[in-house]
Amino acid sequence: MIERTIIIVFDSLGVGELPDAAAFGDTGSNTLAHIAAAVGGLALPNLASLGLGRIIDTQGVPPVLRPQGSFGKMAEVSAGKDTTVGHWELMGVSSPRPLPVYPDGFPQELIDEFKRRTSLGVLGNRAASGTEIIQELGAEHQRTGWPIVYTSADSVWQMAAHEETISLDRLYEICEVSRAFLTGDHGVARVIARPFTGTPGNYTRTHWRKDFSIEPPRPTLLDFAVSQAIPVLAAGKIGEIFAGRGITESRHTSGNEETFDLVLEYMQRSAPAIIFANLVDFDMLWGHRNDPNGYAAGLRAAD
């Protein structure tokens, strides 16, 4: 009997494109191999010993003859490429149709509904880099008190706000309001609170990001585990990705290092459990910013 399972997701660390990559503008994607090539090779002895170098050819990560772990490469069967759908599939629930995306910004009826429910205006409303749009619109946001609403290539409705202009509690509240009407054909995977601090020209996003996910359409492995009195201990944004479903305990973390600390803390408990963690820095700090050196340093730290 397996008494404890530990699942650690290196968020965004892919090992090659899928057949539908062209539909998302991702032809040729291979994050691990490209990061390794960009920095002149990776030194990841522990992951290599488990078999990482046997999955794909990765500069600096040799294919060891006798790996200490099992290894393999999976292909997602769900439509789309969103974080939410990917995590659902890891837990046994596939999604036959992609969740909605808005490359040209959100329809006016959604913006009008947000204004009606919150009595707030909106800045932005387009697909944008989160770090860039707060620099562009941050000062106007602080002057007007209106949140910055934007999206990305993923199925997300994101709201950025300065912590001194819209408090964290208020930002979370208007995200919950948005989650309530973003349903049906407009049921985006996640509504994301994106708080930031700083001054014009020097704004910085904080780690108080919070995701408000759509619920899985069917019970997941996590739901089954909880129904069998097996604790599911979530670290990082896992609890948010599953909208709190099938989660016994969930704790927010400020980044990869704190996530690892929490996993180690969970591991000290003797009871059977599923420990599920997401290392968000790979995606949030380095992936979205196309920072190969930061990504490589994060991989070495994780190793």
Total DSSP E strands = 10
SSE string: EHHHHEHEEHEEEHEHEHEHH
Average pLDDT figure: 95
Helix content: 25-40%
Number of helices: 11
What is the general shape? globular
Look at the helices and sheets and give the structural class: alpha/beta
Rg from Cα = 20 Å
Share of β-strand residues: 15-25%
Whole-Å distance between the termini? Answer: 28 Å
pLDDT < 50 stretches: none
Biggest sheet descriptor: 6 strands, mixed
How is this fold's topology laid out?
Layout: E1 4-10, H1 31-38, H2 45-50, H3 83-90, H4 108-118, E2 123-127, H5 130-144, E3 148-151, E4 156-162, H6 168-181, E5 190-199, E6 202-205, E7 210-213, H7 221-227, E8 232-235, H8 238-241, E9 249-251, H9 256-267, E10 273-279, H10 281-287, H11 292-302
Parallel strand pairs: 1-10, 2-3, 4-5, 8-9, 8-10
Antiparallel strand pairs: 3-4, 5-6, 5-7
Helix pairs in contact: 1-11, 4-6, 10-11
